[in-house]
Amino acid sequence: MTTESAQQSGRKTEQAGAGTTCLSASRVDLAEDALLELENRVCSHGDTVHYAKHPKIFDTCSGSYLYDRQATPYLDLQMWYSAVNLGYGNKRVNDALKLQIDKLPQLACQYLHKEKIELAALLVDSIEKTFGQKGRVHFNVGGAQAVEDALKLVRKSKGKSKMLAFEGGYHGRTLGASAITSSYRYRESYGEFGDRAEFVPFPYCFRCPYGLKKESCKLYCAQQIERKFEHEYTGWWNPKTGKSEFGAFFIEVIQGTGGYIGMPEGYLEYLARILAERGILLVDDEIQMGFFRTGTLWAAEQFGAKPDIMIFGKALTNGLNPLSCIWAREELISPEKFGPGSTHSTFSSNSLGTATGLEVMKIYAEGDYGKTVKEKGSYFLTLLSDLQRKHPEIGDVGGYGLALRMEMCQADGYTPSRELADKMFQIGLDGDLSLNDRKIGLILDIGGYYKNVVTLAPSLEITYEEMDLAHDLLDLVITRAKKG
Questions:
Q1: CB half-sphere exposure, 73, CA atoms < 13 A
Q2: Does any domain span residue 302?
Q3: Structural domain boundaries enclosing 317
Q4: Which pLDDT tens digit goes with each residue over 250-273?
């Protein structure tokens, strides 16, 4: 069907179906430009597809690739914000979902099913083995909903509504999650946030907020947090009662949307001590960095501290079905402390999510991801360092496992260049790169404080050949972006 005939067919359908909610089958075959025009008319622009100057419609996916309607492959280096760690269309996870669809596809969360119990046991056991702490798991749907549940848990256990969080932190866009996410633009349109978190500088060593060097600073940024508890005039502490006005500190040990920045050695241990001495809970947000993204099952285990509460989701089901969790220490989340009805969502422990999550956890248990992710991450980092030597506009590269970053700058290698990063994003999405007589696209994601960081979260199953391909494609994209 030509574009013109598709548009004519669409217009006839609209005329014939005016006043009805029926969607004609003729729309299934609309050409891409007609689909984009229709989308522009009927879809909200509030979701993130419209970050792209020229949106792309995808049709299929497999492994590390997305494919458009012309079957052009796009090497995906962000895997749905780290939700698809095991690759698109993973057969074992897909089969688990199909089996559950035929077995128990729907069940109200007031009832039990074995997959929920078995998955909860695997998660609780893994956390106890890692951190030596007993606790329980509580299910919800999306990451922001789990953050909301964690906020309620903190409020109930500590009786406080004020929280601490980091500059550059991202915890979601519901009202409660927005209150502890540092970006004002997520709150600006929605009135006053009386319970907005107190934000403190993250230890961003490449752009130190205090202008110091990591080699000699002696964790000055952590010292500045400790200073806030020295006396009552900082506003954080009452030395007479020995109490703070804050219930918890919500952290990402590696900031996701903030640009994949990790904490320096010793920082989290220092921070955890400060908080524990003052009765403030440490809440670890693992939504982007959990499930071996960094080379360990939980990112926090690399940083030497034990969280009181953990939040995770995304990759738990490999992106197949929404499922998120909070884990908390037993004394915080026992039935006596956090009983039935403390939170609720219709789909909170949905059977499709728990079945796929259970299979994902089995895959992790059977594999050697702690070894392979670190090896692949080290190799990928050498490729990024090679690109940095070739392109002075790459001011910083780094990463943990397969959570990697390239900070795009002007030619001085330091001044942030959002323009260059945005061009790279769009050039990759256009899908007209040519390599070895092959037409191909590249899926990137842009984050960071100045929106100049290319954040890379490839599939944990990415091959060495695909990483070499990523290097060559990034080289092409950067070269073209620099030319304007």
A1: 15
A2: yes
A3: 94-366
A4: 999 999 999 999 999 999 999 999
